[in-house]
Design brief:
- By secondary structure, the protein is mainly alpha-helical.
- Among the domains are: 35-115, no CATH class; 117-212, Leucine-rich Repeat Variant, CATH 1.25.10.
- The protein has twelve helices and two strands, in the order ααααααααααααββ.
- The protein has helices spanning 3-33, 42-49, 54-73, 80-95, 99-110, 118-124, 130-142, 149-158, 162-175, 178-188, 199-210, 219-229, and strands spanning 234-235, 241-242.
- A two-stranded antiparallel sheet has the order 1-2.
- A hairpin with a 5-residue loop joins strand 1 (234-235) and strand 2.
- It is elongated.
Length: 260
């Protein structure tokens, strides 16, 4: 090794040592003055977030979720600190003052396999912020649960934001089943342009659930299929509703009033 190479090596080593020293000094100062940025574990992030400053909370809801997801991926059982972290994320999702933090907390929770949080996601689907509603719908899509079907069906009918409605359609398709298929068929065949912006996604979802390969423009075939799959109950001479087709005693198919 010549003198020039040796000098370069020594210079590089000194630079690295200086950077490491500055990093340690930065962390020490951050702890002393109550700033975030040195957390490396779930407990560290929680301690910093509990101080209440917005930056720490934002950092915690993102990074705690990542750490918990990594633990699950390695098959590591959650300890008490991890359970506290899940509880903290749930609190932020429910009562956090910042809509971005609420949405981020829902996103972090939605990637965990446990615990089941369907009721939380459904409540946040009614959040005043459409961004939070969007993440709640995505969470229900990632964690399909038949118990969510009634609320998802209602929200698809009531929702105005296209972005949220699109994720609701995906959530319905993820849950699957007869009720989800019937709801999506209703949307596909709706006579006005109410579902026009999300029609392709509705169409793909209907094909996925029905197993049929009718075209997007073949509305008559889809309508006939719907009538056969979900026959409308008709009153008999005795006044009892009866059906024809492959399902008995199905409730009447929903009709959606025109939105003004």
């Amino acid at each position: 090794m010549n003198r020039s190479t040796l000098d370069s090596f020594v210079t590089l080593r000194l630079l690295l040592m200086r950077l490491l020293f500055m990093r340690k000094l930065s962390c020490i100062l951050s702890v002393l003055v109550g700033l975030s940025g040195c957390a490396s574990s779930v407990n560290d992030y929680l301690v910093e977030a509990r101080r209440g400053d917005p930056e720490s909370v934002t950092e915690a809801v993102v990074n705690v979720g990542k750490l918990l997801r990594e633990k699950e991926g390695r098959g590591v059982t959650f300890d008490r600190g991890d359970e506290e972290a899940v509880k903290y994320l749930t609190e932020v999702a429910e009562i956090g003052k910042n809509a971005v933090n609420r949405a981020s907390a829902i996103d972090s929770l939605s990637h965990l396999r446990r615990p089941r949080l369907t009721s939380l996601f459904l409540r946040r689907l009614e959040d005043k912020s459409w961004g939070v509603q969007l993440e709640a719908a995505r969470a229900l899509s990632r964690n399909p649960d038949p118990e969510a079907l009634p609320a998802l069906t209602k929200r698809l009918d009531d929702e105005i934001r296209i972005e949220v409605r699109l994720e609701i359609v995906k959530a319905l398709a993820a849950v699957g089943g007869e009720e989800a298929l019937r709801t999506l068929l209703d949307a596909l065949l709706y006579p006005s342009g109410r579902y026009g912006e999300i029609r392709l996604t509705v169409f793909d979802s209907v094909r996925q659930l029905s197993g049929k390969d009718f075209g997007l423009a073949e509305l008559e075939r889809w309508s006939r299929y719907k009538s056969e799959r979900f026959p409308v109950p008709k009153p008999t001479d005795s006044g009892v509703l009866s059906t024809s087709g492959n399902e008995k005693n199905e409730p009447p198919i929903k009709t959606y009033p025109e939105k003004k």
